[in-house]
Amino acid sequence: MSSDTFTSRQFNQDPSSVKRAAKNGPVKITERGVVAFMMMNIDDYLEITGKTSTILDLVSAPNTQDIQLDVPKFKTSN
């Protein structure tokens, strides 16, 4: 996994190039020569944290208000 470094100024002037670089691995963003932030793609983040998206994360994501979710009801035996 490669790691690129950008200054805060570079990030502010061209955030798209930083996002493209983050597709290949974590990106360091520096302020006055010191690493202040890291950017990575969500798949890498979920892999290193061991977290996965929950149904709540997916339903509350932007632009999902018009998606209809049909959940079957489970029958319980008495």
Automatic annotation (TrEMBL):
<feature type="region of interest" description="Disordered">
    <location>
        <begin position="1"/>
        <end position="25"/>
    </location>
</feature>
<comment type="similarity">
    <text>Belongs to the phD/YefM antitoxin family.</text>
</comment>
<feature type="compositionally biased region" description="Polar residues">
    <location>
        <begin position="1"/>
        <end position="16"/>
    </location>
</feature>
<dbReference type="InterPro" id="IPR036165">
    <property type="entry name" value="YefM-like_sf"/>
</dbReference>
<protein>
    <submittedName>
        <fullName>Prevent-host-death protein</fullName>
    </submittedName>
</protein>
